[in-house]
Amino acid sequence: MKTRIISAIVAIIIAIPLIILGKYVFAIGVCLIAALAYKEILDLKESHNQLPLIMAFLGFFAMICIILSNNVDASIYRGLTYQVITLVILFLLIPTIFLDKKYSTKDAFYLIGVVFLLGVTFNTFIVIRNRGLYLFLYLLIIPMVTDIFAMLGGKYFGHHKMCPKLSPHKTWEGSLSGLLGGSLIGIIFYVIFIGSLNIRVILITIILSLIGQMGDLVMSKIKRENNIKDFSNIMPGHGGILDRLDSVIFVFLAYMFLLII
Q1: Rounded to an integer, what distance in angstroms lies between the CA atom of residue 77 and that of residue 8?
Q2: For the chain, counts of helices (H) and of strands (E)
Q3: I need a surface site. Which of 134, 171, 242, 243 has the fewest CB within 10 A?
């Protein structure tokens, strides 16, 4: 428990200045975090079939390009979203011709999936932070509070297992507690710092709390399928980057989608 608390304090001390400062400082921090997440996912792949170092590097470069697309002032990145996507596909597929058995088309599609998942996710973090500090915090608070209330609800009221094969400790009572707590705190934060209360805000907050819980389960499934407890041990007592950002990733992606519909 002591190790877990110390790790959490260190993470908060590092994260808060990055979030508050925003802009280039935040973008650099996001790229560093993305690099760690990228390694965690590649480690899953390399436990079965190691990728050539050159392709891992090209995948990393492609991911960074997606993360920074349309998010910084440098003109080279402005309006290049489709060009970046095209280059990623070309860079990661064409080498399968020359690397033969060392790098198959299956490896290429795996790498493309990783690059786009992480690239789009961390790109979204920067986009939303650039739109406003309080909006970013609102989306961060929802999954964090949902997780806390789900844990407390499951501990004190949980009796009916939710997904015992994926996450033995999760219960329906805990999930409902998380939904109520995360939605309520999220709505209160929105009304105080962002805007007025309306049915759209309520619905979006509830949906995001639900999707955050689904994201947690998806990451649990990935770990279960790869027979690991955590993605890494970079945060002692907590696991890896993806262990901490599991529900957050899905909440931010879902919010960007909900803005469109």
Answers
A1: 34
A2: 10, 2
A3: 134
Q: What is the DSSP string of 202-246?
A: HHHHHHHHHHHHHHHHHHHHHHHHTT-S-S--SBTTTB-HHHHHH
* Same domain flag for 122 and 137: no
The partner residues of 235 in beta bridges, in order of sequence, read 239
d(CA 258, CA 153): 28
Number of domains in the chain: 2
Chain position carrying tokens 């064409």:
94
Whole-model pTM above 0.90?
no
- Tokens 């908060």 found at: 12
**Three-state DSSP state, 198:** coil
CA distance 67 to 123: 4
| Alpha-helix runs per DSSP H in 132-171 | 133-157
Q: Provide the residue range defining the domain that includes 192.
A: 132-261
